[in-house]
Amino acid sequence: MAEVFFSCQPVFSNDLQQWGSELLFREGLENKFPSIDEDTATSRILSANFLASNSNQNQSRYIVSFGESSLMDEIPLSMPSQSLIIFLTDDCHPNAELVSKLRAYRTEGYRIMMDGKAMHNAWRNYLELVDIFSISMERDNPSDWEQTISQYSQQVFLARKVEKQEELAAAQSVGFTLFQGYFFEKPTIVRSEDVAPSVMSLLDICIIINKNPDDIDTLTNIISKDVSLLYKVIASANILAKTKTNKIANPRQAVVYLGVQALRRLVSLLIMSNLNHQHAAQLQSIALLRATFFSSLQIDNKEFNADEAFIVGAFSMLDVMLSKPMSEIVSQLDLSAAVKKGLTTKEGVYGQLITLSHDIEHANWNGLINWCNELKLNDKAVLKEFEAARVSTAEITSSMQV
Protein backbone atom coordinates (compact mmCIF):
# COMPACT_ATOMS: atom_id res chain seq x y z
CA MET A 1 0.00 0.00 0.00
CA ALA A 2 1.18 3.57 -0.51
CA GLU A 3 0.29 7.01 0.74
CA VAL A 4 -1.19 9.33 -1.86
CA PHE A 5 -1.41 13.06 -1.21
CA PHE A 6 -3.56 15.57 -3.04
CA SER A 7 -4.62 19.16 -2.55
CA CYS A 8 -8.35 19.69 -2.23
CA GLN A 9 -9.48 23.31 -2.73
CA PRO A 10 -13.18 24.14 -2.55
CA VAL A 11 -15.01 26.04 -5.28
CA PHE A 12 -17.97 28.21 -4.26
CA SER A 13 -21.09 29.31 -6.13
CA ASN A 14 -22.53 32.83 -6.30
CA ASP A 15 -24.46 32.31 -3.07
CA LEU A 16 -21.16 31.27 -1.42
CA GLN A 17 -22.22 27.64 -1.03
CA GLN A 18 -19.63 24.99 -1.84
CA TRP A 19 -20.15 23.91 -5.46
CA GLY A 20 -17.31 21.39 -5.69
CA SER A 21 -13.57 20.93 -5.19
CA GLU A 22 -10.45 20.94 -7.30
CA LEU A 23 -8.06 18.02 -6.78
CA LEU A 24 -4.33 18.40 -7.47
CA PHE A 25 -1.72 15.69 -6.87
CA ARG A 26 0.96 16.46 -4.29
CA GLU A 27 4.02 14.52 -3.16
CA GLY A 28 3.61 15.21 0.55
CA LEU A 29 1.85 17.30 3.17
CA GLU A 30 3.27 20.54 1.72
CA ASN A 31 1.19 22.22 -0.99
CA LYS A 32 3.88 21.92 -3.65
CA PHE A 33 3.68 20.89 -7.29
CA PRO A 34 4.87 17.31 -7.93
CA SER A 35 7.86 16.33 -10.02
CA ILE A 36 5.96 13.62 -11.93
CA ASP A 37 4.18 14.00 -15.25
CA GLU A 38 0.57 15.22 -15.46
CA ASP A 39 -0.93 11.92 -16.62
CA THR A 40 0.62 9.94 -13.76
CA ALA A 41 -0.53 12.55 -11.24
CA THR A 42 -4.07 12.49 -12.63
CA SER A 43 -4.26 8.70 -12.53
CA ARG A 44 -3.08 8.58 -8.94
CA ILE A 45 -5.70 11.14 -7.93
CA LEU A 46 -8.50 9.18 -9.60
CA SER A 47 -7.38 5.85 -8.20
CA ALA A 48 -7.02 7.16 -4.66
CA ASN A 49 -9.99 9.53 -4.51
CA PHE A 50 -12.65 7.68 -6.48
CA LEU A 51 -11.64 4.04 -5.96
CA ALA A 52 -10.30 4.13 -2.44
CA SER A 53 -12.01 7.04 -0.69
CA ASN A 54 -15.06 7.25 1.51
CA SER A 55 -16.59 10.26 -0.19
CA ASN A 56 -20.07 10.08 -1.65
CA GLN A 57 -19.35 10.50 -5.33
CA ASN A 58 -22.96 11.13 -6.28
CA GLN A 59 -23.08 14.28 -4.14
CA SER A 60 -19.66 15.73 -5.04
CA ARG A 61 -18.09 17.53 -7.99
CA TYR A 62 -14.38 17.28 -8.59
CA ILE A 63 -12.28 19.33 -10.98
CA VAL A 64 -9.41 17.14 -12.18
CA SER A 65 -6.74 18.11 -14.73
CA PHE A 66 -6.25 15.85 -17.75
CA GLY A 67 -3.43 15.84 -20.26
CA GLU A 68 -3.92 14.86 -23.89
CA SER A 69 -2.72 11.28 -23.38
CA SER A 70 -5.25 10.61 -20.58
CA LEU A 71 -8.05 12.14 -22.65
CA MET A 72 -7.24 10.05 -25.72
CA ASP A 73 -7.09 6.91 -23.55
CA GLU A 74 -10.60 7.72 -22.28
CA ILE A 75 -9.46 7.74 -18.65
CA PRO A 76 -12.24 10.18 -17.61
CA LEU A 77 -14.84 7.55 -18.57
CA SER A 78 -13.64 5.52 -15.58
CA MET A 79 -15.43 8.08 -13.40
CA PRO A 80 -19.10 9.13 -13.24
CA SER A 81 -19.94 12.14 -15.39
CA GLN A 82 -21.99 13.82 -12.66
CA SER A 83 -18.94 13.90 -10.38
CA LEU A 84 -16.13 14.87 -12.72
CA ILE A 85 -15.19 18.19 -14.33
CA ILE A 86 -12.52 17.66 -17.02
CA PHE A 87 -9.95 20.48 -16.84
CA LEU A 88 -7.66 20.50 -19.88
CA THR A 89 -3.97 21.10 -19.16
CA ASP A 90 -1.94 23.59 -21.16
CA ASP A 91 -0.26 20.82 -23.17
CA CYS A 92 -3.55 19.95 -24.90
CA HIS A 93 -3.75 21.18 -28.50
CA PRO A 94 -6.91 21.11 -30.65
CA ASN A 95 -6.08 18.39 -33.17
CA ALA A 96 -8.97 16.60 -34.89
CA GLU A 97 -8.74 13.48 -32.71
CA LEU A 98 -8.79 15.37 -29.42
CA VAL A 99 -11.63 17.65 -30.50
CA SER A 100 -13.66 14.59 -31.50
CA LYS A 101 -12.93 12.98 -28.13
CA LEU A 102 -14.04 16.10 -26.25
CA ARG A 103 -17.30 16.15 -28.19
CA ALA A 104 -17.85 12.53 -27.16
CA TYR A 105 -17.20 13.37 -23.50
CA ARG A 106 -19.78 16.14 -23.61
CA THR A 107 -22.29 13.75 -25.22
CA GLU A 108 -21.72 11.42 -22.25
CA GLY A 109 -22.54 14.26 -19.85
CA TYR A 110 -19.07 15.38 -18.81
CA ARG A 111 -18.34 19.09 -18.48
CA ILE A 112 -15.19 20.59 -19.97
CA MET A 113 -13.16 23.31 -18.30
CA MET A 114 -10.35 25.41 -19.81
CA ASP A 115 -8.20 28.31 -18.76
CA GLY A 116 -9.40 31.68 -20.06
CA LYS A 117 -6.30 31.72 -22.28
CA ALA A 118 -8.23 29.38 -24.60
CA MET A 119 -10.04 32.42 -25.97
CA HIS A 120 -6.81 33.75 -27.41
CA ASN A 121 -4.92 30.64 -28.50
CA ALA A 122 -5.55 27.68 -30.83
CA TRP A 123 -8.68 26.70 -28.91
CA ARG A 124 -10.52 29.92 -29.82
CA ASN A 125 -12.24 28.13 -32.75
CA TYR A 126 -13.64 25.45 -30.44
CA LEU A 127 -15.03 27.45 -27.54
CA GLU A 128 -18.42 25.76 -27.93
CA LEU A 129 -16.79 22.71 -26.31
CA VAL A 130 -16.09 24.62 -23.11
CA ASP A 131 -18.58 24.64 -20.23
CA ILE A 132 -16.44 26.51 -17.69
CA PHE A 133 -13.70 29.09 -18.18
CA SER A 134 -11.13 29.54 -15.41
CA ILE A 135 -9.76 33.07 -14.92
CA SER A 136 -7.00 33.98 -12.46
CA MET A 137 -7.65 37.20 -10.51
CA GLU A 138 -3.89 37.35 -9.94
CA ARG A 139 -3.38 37.68 -13.69
CA ASP A 140 -6.52 39.51 -14.87
CA ASN A 141 -8.73 42.35 -13.76
CA PRO A 142 -12.37 41.19 -13.41
CA SER A 143 -13.63 44.21 -15.36
CA ASP A 144 -11.60 43.11 -18.38
CA TRP A 145 -13.91 40.10 -18.69
CA GLU A 146 -17.29 41.83 -18.44
CA GLN A 147 -17.90 42.01 -22.18
CA THR A 148 -16.68 38.43 -22.76
CA ILE A 149 -18.88 37.04 -20.00
CA SER A 150 -21.87 38.85 -21.49
CA GLN A 151 -21.04 37.50 -24.96
CA TYR A 152 -20.68 33.90 -23.72
CA SER A 153 -23.74 33.92 -21.47
CA GLN A 154 -24.33 30.16 -21.88
CA GLN A 155 -20.99 29.35 -20.28
CA VAL A 156 -19.80 29.59 -16.69
CA PHE A 157 -16.83 31.67 -15.53
CA LEU A 158 -14.75 30.70 -12.50
CA ALA A 159 -12.69 33.38 -10.73
CA ARG A 160 -9.52 31.88 -9.24
CA LYS A 161 -7.19 33.29 -6.60
CA VAL A 162 -9.85 35.46 -4.97
CA GLU A 163 -8.16 36.71 -1.82
CA LYS A 164 -10.08 39.81 -0.77
CA GLN A 165 -13.72 40.86 -0.27
CA GLU A 166 -13.36 43.59 -2.90
CA GLU A 167 -12.02 41.07 -5.44
CA LEU A 168 -15.05 38.86 -4.83
CA ALA A 169 -17.44 41.82 -5.20
CA ALA A 170 -15.75 42.93 -8.42
CA ALA A 171 -15.89 39.44 -9.91
CA GLN A 172 -19.57 39.03 -8.98
CA SER A 173 -20.48 42.41 -10.45
CA VAL A 174 -19.23 41.50 -13.93
CA GLY A 175 -20.85 38.06 -14.07
CA PHE A 176 -18.50 35.47 -12.56
CA THR A 177 -20.57 32.77 -10.86
CA LEU A 178 -17.93 30.38 -9.45
CA PHE A 179 -15.14 31.40 -7.09
CA GLN A 180 -12.02 29.89 -5.57
CA GLY A 181 -9.24 31.30 -3.44
CA TYR A 182 -7.78 31.96 -0.03
CA PHE A 183 -10.58 34.45 0.71
CA PHE A 184 -12.88 31.44 1.13
CA GLU A 185 -10.62 28.66 2.30
CA LYS A 186 -7.04 27.55 1.87
CA PRO A 187 -6.52 24.17 0.18
CA THR A 188 -6.21 21.19 2.48
CA ILE A 189 -3.81 18.33 1.80
CA VAL A 190 -5.63 15.02 1.88
CA ARG A 191 -3.70 11.87 2.69
CA SER A 192 -5.10 8.61 1.34
CA GLU A 193 -3.93 5.00 1.39
CA ASP A 194 -4.10 3.21 -1.93
CA VAL A 195 -3.70 -0.51 -2.52
CA ALA A 196 -1.54 -1.60 -5.42
CA PRO A 197 -2.76 -4.33 -7.76
CA SER A 198 -0.06 -6.65 -9.07
CA VAL A 199 1.45 -5.29 -12.26
CA MET A 200 1.38 -8.82 -13.68
CA SER A 201 -2.37 -9.03 -13.03
CA LEU A 202 -2.92 -5.75 -14.87
CA LEU A 203 -0.81 -6.89 -17.82
CA ASP A 204 -2.60 -10.25 -17.92
CA ILE A 205 -5.94 -8.44 -18.10
CA CYS A 206 -4.65 -6.29 -20.97
CA ILE A 207 -3.53 -9.39 -22.88
CA ILE A 208 -6.86 -11.19 -22.44
CA ILE A 209 -8.89 -8.11 -23.38
CA ASN A 210 -6.86 -7.63 -26.55
CA LYS A 211 -6.77 -11.29 -27.60
CA ASN A 212 -10.13 -12.60 -26.44
CA PRO A 213 -12.35 -9.89 -24.91
CA ASP A 214 -15.32 -12.26 -24.61
CA ASP A 215 -13.45 -14.61 -22.28
CA ILE A 216 -15.26 -13.45 -19.15
CA ASP A 217 -14.25 -16.54 -17.17
CA THR A 218 -10.51 -15.94 -17.65
CA LEU A 219 -10.86 -12.24 -16.86
CA THR A 220 -12.81 -13.11 -13.72
CA ASN A 221 -10.22 -15.68 -12.71
CA ILE A 222 -7.33 -13.22 -12.98
CA ILE A 223 -9.20 -10.49 -11.09
CA SER A 224 -10.27 -12.91 -8.35
CA LYS A 225 -6.63 -13.74 -7.60
CA ASP A 226 -5.63 -10.14 -6.92
CA VAL A 227 -7.41 -8.68 -3.91
CA SER A 228 -6.64 -5.06 -4.74
CA LEU A 229 -7.77 -5.42 -8.34
CA LEU A 230 -10.96 -7.19 -7.25
CA TYR A 231 -11.74 -4.36 -4.82
CA LYS A 232 -11.19 -1.68 -7.45
CA VAL A 233 -13.25 -3.53 -10.07
CA ILE A 234 -16.21 -3.80 -7.69
CA ALA A 235 -15.76 -0.20 -6.49
CA SER A 236 -15.66 0.98 -10.11
CA ALA A 237 -18.81 -0.99 -10.96
CA ASN A 238 -20.58 0.69 -8.04
CA ILE A 239 -19.61 4.28 -8.80
CA LEU A 240 -20.37 3.94 -12.51
CA ALA A 241 -23.75 2.32 -11.96
CA LYS A 242 -26.74 4.34 -13.13
CA THR A 243 -29.31 1.86 -11.83
CA LYS A 244 -28.83 -1.42 -10.00
CA THR A 245 -31.48 -3.83 -8.82
CA ASN A 246 -29.22 -6.73 -7.80
CA LYS A 247 -26.28 -6.80 -5.44
CA ILE A 248 -22.83 -7.52 -6.86
CA ALA A 249 -22.25 -10.84 -5.17
CA ASN A 250 -19.23 -12.21 -7.02
CA PRO A 251 -16.28 -11.17 -9.22
CA ARG A 252 -17.91 -12.42 -12.43
CA GLN A 253 -20.94 -10.19 -11.86
CA ALA A 254 -18.66 -7.16 -11.47
CA VAL A 255 -16.79 -7.97 -14.70
CA VAL A 256 -20.00 -8.49 -16.65
CA TYR A 257 -21.51 -5.30 -15.23
CA LEU A 258 -18.49 -3.18 -16.15
CA GLY A 259 -18.04 -4.65 -19.61
CA VAL A 260 -14.81 -4.94 -21.57
CA GLN A 261 -14.42 -1.26 -22.47
CA ALA A 262 -14.89 0.04 -18.92
CA LEU A 263 -12.57 -2.69 -17.63
CA ARG A 264 -9.96 -1.71 -20.21
CA ARG A 265 -10.16 1.93 -19.08
CA LEU A 266 -9.89 0.97 -15.42
CA VAL A 267 -6.81 -1.17 -16.04
CA SER A 268 -5.25 1.63 -18.11
CA LEU A 269 -5.84 4.05 -15.24
CA LEU A 270 -4.20 1.68 -12.73
CA ILE A 271 -1.20 1.03 -14.98
CA MET A 272 -0.75 4.76 -15.61
CA SER A 273 -0.88 5.50 -11.89
CA ASN A 274 2.41 3.59 -11.58
CA LEU A 275 1.17 1.37 -8.78
CA ASN A 276 4.20 -0.90 -8.80
CA HIS A 277 4.82 -0.83 -5.05
CA GLN A 278 4.30 -4.20 -3.39
CA HIS A 279 4.25 -3.28 0.33
CA ALA A 280 0.82 -4.87 0.74
CA ALA A 281 1.84 -8.22 -0.76
CA GLN A 282 1.63 -10.10 2.55
CA LEU A 283 -1.78 -8.66 3.44
CA GLN A 284 -3.10 -9.45 -0.04
CA SER A 285 -1.79 -13.00 0.30
CA ILE A 286 -3.64 -13.47 3.59
CA ALA A 287 -6.83 -12.06 2.08
CA LEU A 288 -6.61 -14.33 -0.97
CA LEU A 289 -5.98 -17.35 1.24
CA ARG A 290 -9.10 -16.50 3.27
CA ALA A 291 -11.16 -15.99 0.11
CA THR A 292 -10.11 -19.38 -1.28
CA PHE A 293 -10.59 -21.07 2.10
CA PHE A 294 -14.03 -19.59 2.83
CA SER A 295 -15.44 -20.41 -0.60
CA SER A 296 -14.26 -24.03 -0.36
CA LEU A 297 -16.26 -24.80 2.79
CA GLN A 298 -19.61 -26.57 2.78
CA ILE A 299 -21.72 -24.81 5.39
CA ASP A 300 -25.37 -25.55 6.05
CA ASN A 301 -26.61 -22.04 6.75
CA LYS A 302 -29.16 -20.06 4.75
CA GLU A 303 -26.95 -16.95 4.99
CA PHE A 304 -23.93 -18.74 3.48
CA ASN A 305 -23.11 -18.40 -0.20
CA ALA A 306 -19.75 -19.52 -1.60
CA ASP A 307 -19.46 -16.48 -3.92
CA GLU A 308 -20.19 -14.07 -1.09
CA ALA A 309 -17.78 -15.98 1.16
CA PHE A 310 -15.04 -15.38 -1.40
CA ILE A 311 -15.74 -11.63 -1.36
CA VAL A 312 -15.70 -11.61 2.46
CA GLY A 313 -12.31 -13.30 2.58
CA ALA A 314 -10.88 -11.10 -0.19
CA PHE A 315 -12.02 -7.88 1.51
CA SER A 316 -11.34 -8.92 5.10
CA MET A 317 -7.95 -7.12 5.21
CA LEU A 318 -8.96 -3.93 3.41
CA ASP A 319 -9.26 -1.88 6.59
CA VAL A 320 -5.59 -2.60 7.33
CA MET A 321 -4.54 -2.05 3.71
CA LEU A 322 -6.34 1.27 3.41
CA SER A 323 -5.90 2.43 7.02
CA LYS A 324 -9.63 3.16 7.21
CA PRO A 325 -12.50 1.75 9.26
CA MET A 326 -14.13 -1.20 7.53
CA SER A 327 -17.51 0.52 7.87
CA GLU A 328 -16.32 3.37 5.63
CA ILE A 329 -14.97 0.96 3.04
CA VAL A 330 -18.03 -1.27 2.71
CA SER A 331 -20.37 1.72 2.64
CA GLN A 332 -19.07 2.35 -0.91
CA LEU A 333 -19.82 -1.18 -2.09
CA ASP A 334 -23.18 -2.66 -3.02
CA LEU A 335 -22.82 -5.82 -0.92
CA SER A 336 -25.46 -7.86 0.87
CA ALA A 337 -26.36 -7.08 4.46
CA ALA A 338 -24.85 -10.38 5.61
CA VAL A 339 -21.52 -9.60 3.94
CA LYS A 340 -21.40 -6.06 5.38
CA LYS A 341 -22.26 -7.36 8.85
CA GLY A 342 -19.56 -9.99 8.69
CA LEU A 343 -16.90 -7.53 7.56
CA THR A 344 -17.79 -4.70 9.93
CA THR A 345 -18.92 -6.44 13.14
CA LYS A 346 -17.58 -10.00 12.69
CA GLU A 347 -21.12 -11.25 13.29
CA GLY A 348 -23.18 -13.83 11.43
CA VAL A 349 -21.77 -16.76 9.49
CA TYR A 350 -19.26 -14.59 7.57
CA GLY A 351 -18.03 -12.93 10.75
CA GLN A 352 -17.55 -16.38 12.28
CA LEU A 353 -15.48 -17.42 9.26
CA ILE A 354 -13.20 -14.39 9.64
CA THR A 355 -12.65 -15.17 13.32
CA LEU A 356 -12.14 -18.87 12.52
CA SER A 357 -9.45 -18.03 9.98
CA HIS A 358 -7.79 -15.60 12.38
CA ASP A 359 -7.63 -18.30 15.05
CA ILE A 360 -6.06 -20.79 12.61
CA GLU A 361 -3.51 -18.19 11.46
CA HIS A 362 -2.53 -17.58 15.10
CA ALA A 363 -2.60 -21.25 16.17
CA ASN A 364 -5.51 -20.72 18.55
CA TRP A 365 -6.76 -24.30 18.46
CA ASN A 366 -9.40 -23.77 21.16
CA GLY A 367 -10.89 -21.04 18.98
CA LEU A 368 -10.77 -23.35 15.96
CA ILE A 369 -12.74 -26.05 17.77
CA ASN A 370 -15.25 -23.51 19.12
CA TRP A 371 -16.04 -22.05 15.69
CA CYS A 372 -16.14 -25.43 14.01
CA ASN A 373 -18.76 -26.47 16.56
CA GLU A 374 -20.72 -23.26 15.87
CA LEU A 375 -20.58 -23.84 12.11
CA LYS A 376 -21.14 -27.62 12.38
CA LEU A 377 -17.83 -28.38 10.68
CA ASN A 378 -15.22 -31.07 11.29
CA ASP A 379 -12.08 -29.37 12.60
CA LYS A 380 -9.68 -31.80 10.87
CA ALA A 381 -11.47 -31.34 7.54
CA VAL A 382 -11.36 -27.56 8.02
CA LEU A 383 -7.60 -27.64 8.61
CA LYS A 384 -7.15 -29.69 5.42
CA GLU A 385 -9.14 -27.11 3.46
CA PHE A 386 -7.08 -24.31 5.00
CA GLU A 387 -3.82 -26.02 4.05
CA ALA A 388 -5.06 -26.61 0.51
CA ALA A 389 -5.97 -22.92 0.27
CA ARG A 390 -2.55 -21.96 1.62
CA VAL A 391 -0.75 -24.05 -1.01
CA SER A 392 -2.99 -22.69 -3.77
CA THR A 393 -2.42 -19.09 -2.63
CA ALA A 394 1.35 -19.57 -2.45
CA GLU A 395 1.37 -20.80 -6.04
CA ILE A 396 -0.73 -17.86 -7.22
CA THR A 397 1.24 -15.17 -5.39
CA SER A 398 4.60 -16.56 -6.49
CA SER A 399 3.47 -16.28 -10.12
CA MET A 400 2.31 -12.68 -9.58
CA GLN A 401 5.52 -11.21 -8.16
CA VAL A 402 6.89 -8.28 -10.15
What does this structure look like?
- Helix 6 packs across helix 9 and helix 15 packs antiparallel against helix 16 (365-375).
- Strand 6, helix 4 and strand 7 form a beta-alpha-beta unit.
- Helix content is 49%, strand content 14%.
- It starts with a strand and ends with a helix.
- The chain is of the alpha/beta class.
- It has 2 domains: 2-193, EAL domain (TIM Barrel); 195-402, Hypothetical protein af1432.
- The protein has an 8-stranded mixed β-barrel.
- It has helices at residues 38-51, 68-72, 96-107, 146-151, 165-173, 199-211, 216-224, 227-240, 251-272, 281-296, 306-315, 318-322, 326-330, 337-345, 348-361, 365-375, 379-400; strands at 2-13, 18-26, 62-66, 84-88, 111-115, 132-136, 156-160, 178-179, 188-194.
- It contains 17 helices and 9 strands.
Please provide a brief summary of the model.
The chain is an alpha/beta fold and 402 residues long.
Q: What is the strand arrangement across the widest sheet?
A: 1-2-3-4-5-6-7-8
The main β sheet shows up as: 8 strands, mixed, barrel
What would the average pLDDT be, to the nearest integer? 81
Rg over alpha carbons:
24 Å
Note the total helix count: 17
Amino- and carboxy-terminal Cα gap: 15 Å
Sheet-strand content, in percent, reads 5-15%
DSSP E strands, number:
9
Structural class: alpha/beta
CATH topology of the largest domain: Hypothetical protein af1432
Instruction: Please name the fourth-level CATH homologous superfamily of the largest domain.
Output: Hypothetical protein af1432
